[in-house]
Amino acid sequence: MKWRHKKFTFMVIPDANSSVIRFQLSAVILVIGLVIVIALLAGALTAFLLYKGNTGQIGQLQQQLSAATGKYEKIINSKNEHIDVLQTNVADLSEQAKTMNDRMADIKNLESQLKKMVGIETGSSAKTKGTLDQSSKAVTADEEQISMDGGTGGEEVPITEGEMGLLVDQTRDDFLSIGQQIEWLKPELEITKDAVTKQLKRLRVTPTIWPTDSRRVTSLFGIRKDPFTHRATFHAGLDISGDTGDPIYAAADGTVISAERSSSHGNNVLISHANGVRTHYSHLSKILTEVGAKVSKGDIIGELGSTGRSTGPHLHYEVIINGENVDPRPYLNATRGSN
Fold it and tell me: How many domains does the chain have?
């Protein structure tokens, strides 16, 4: 181990005019210095190799990150497209709900019109009416008509999350309202159907149509001057003039209880209807029915004439309620085509 004690002399000559610089280093220090230099070189080489390897990995990671970013961008764009479609569908459903609400109001209106046509009271339940009134706050077709056939325009403004939430809530409420209306309308329409059926049956046996094609009334019901005696007498019916041979129609469904000729009424027909109602047709030129015949409203039962106590071709028409003659005019409120 004698080499540890050895010393090495190093000379540094800066230039020809400068003095020589000498310094001595022991063998131990020299070895330590060499070791440090070698260690530094090894560290630098290791760092270089690591950097070179990491550079390749960083490039791969960057490529993977770029691919993942593109993939996620496509997913986000797809999600956005789906959201746009869903928002459009919600808007369509909202329009459909409004349209259905309008249709429900139309159905209720038609029900009221049907009741009115057959003479049924058109009052409706408060909760149904209230619901329909609320749904009818939207402008009706008579007030304003929205059509996709015309031109539209305006700036396209993206819908906000809050606005979409309100639209979803409104659409849900609209469909809930429609469901309630349907549940309320079902029994009401059944009731209306039964009421209309009963009313139609009543109308069938109620003398509501004109018994002649002519509408020329020549003598009214009540007190009048008799055309033969010229004295005040009670006229029990209505005289409707026409041409001999004109058809005479049954004013309601019923049964013929008399078809005969008399000195005062000439050829005449008496028909019994329901609820104590009878109609009498006099001065016919010809009888076209017989006792016991079942006649329907609008059936021809004879022809207009001037038989019996008559001054000219006409029909003497009477309406009798429970044995008492009443004015026929209130019953002449329909034609044969609308009975």
Answer: 3
Question: Which of 77, 97, 114 is a domain's end point?
Answer: 77
Alpha carbon 28 to its chain's center: 104
**Amino acid sitting at position 62:** Q
| Residue labelled with tokens 């003497």 | 316
Among 89, 88, 100, 91, CA closest to 175: 100
Distance from C-alpha of 327 to C-alpha of 221, rounded to nearest angstrom: 6
Q: Is residue 151 part of a domain?
A: no
Say how far apart CA 27 and CA 280 lie, in whole Å: 156
Within this chain, do residues 181 and 283 fall inside the same structural domain, yes or no?
no
Q: Find the length of the chain.
A: 339
Buried b vs exposed e over 116-128: b needs ≥16 C-beta within 10 Å? eeeebeeebeeeb
User: Angle 147-152-154 (CA atoms, 0-180°, nearest 5)?
Assistant: 145
The backbone torsions φ and ψ at residue 267, rounded to the nearest 5 degrees and listed phi first, read -70, 125
How sure is the predictor about 43, in pLDDT bands with cuts at 50, 70 and 90?
confident
Domain of residue 55, residue span: 2-77
Whether 93 is covered by a domain: the verdict is: yes
4 CB-near residues (< 8 Å, 6+ apart): 26, 27, 28
Which residue, 210, 204, 208, is CA-closest to 246?
210
Backbone torsions φ then ψ of 234, nearest 5 degrees: -90, 125
171 domain-assigned: yes
- Give the pLDDT confidence of 158-203 residue by residue, as tens digits: 667 677 677 777 777 777 777 667 777 777 777 777 777 777 777 7
Residue 144 belongs to some domain of the structure? no
Mark out the alpha helices in the chain (DSSP H runs): 27-117, 126-135, 161-204
35 and 95 part of one domain = no
pTM of the model: 0.49
CA angle 124/127/130 to nearest 5° reads: 85
**Residue labelled with tokens 């010229």:** 230
Q: Angle at which helices 126-135 and 27-117 pack, to 10 degrees?
A: 120
Q: Which two tokens stand for residue 46?
A: 């290791």
Shared domain check, 119 and 20: no
